[in-house]
Design a protein that fits this description.
Blueprint lengths: L1 H18 L7 H11 L2 E3 L14 E5 L2 E6 L3 E5 L13 E4 L13 E6 L5 E6 L3 E6 L3
Antiparallel strand pairs: 1-8, 2-3, 3-4, 4-8, 5-6, 6-7
Length: 136
Amino acid sequence: MRGISLLAAGAALASCTMSAQAPAPNMQAQTKYQQLLAGKVALAPISCLPTRKANDMQVIDENTIAFRDGSNRVYINHPAGGCNQLSQGHTALVTHQIGEEGPCRGDVAQVVDTLSHMTLGSCSLGDFTPYVRQGA
């Protein structure tokens, strides 16, 4: 009987540790990410996105958001802990701008359902890493 209880406790512990791991990005998200960064090199991360660059956002997955600046530059942001529900269809990422700078590291962004206008969650933005086309 003691062996069964130890086995059950071990299984419960294993299930807790397995569920704590972040899911791997799906193949479609990986492909989209690779296409977006093809031929580009990373520059030093910046803490705030220039305001004029914040309008062309593309969600790769809940852990990766891209802000495109034409075809030669893209800024990648990895929100701390991910941005739950962001890639679930009709959603938008809403930030509140203070001053003249765009979104910055540490800003809290809300994930809003664009159909019901309900807030689904929130996340804290990370650094913005610019990727630029070589020779541009």
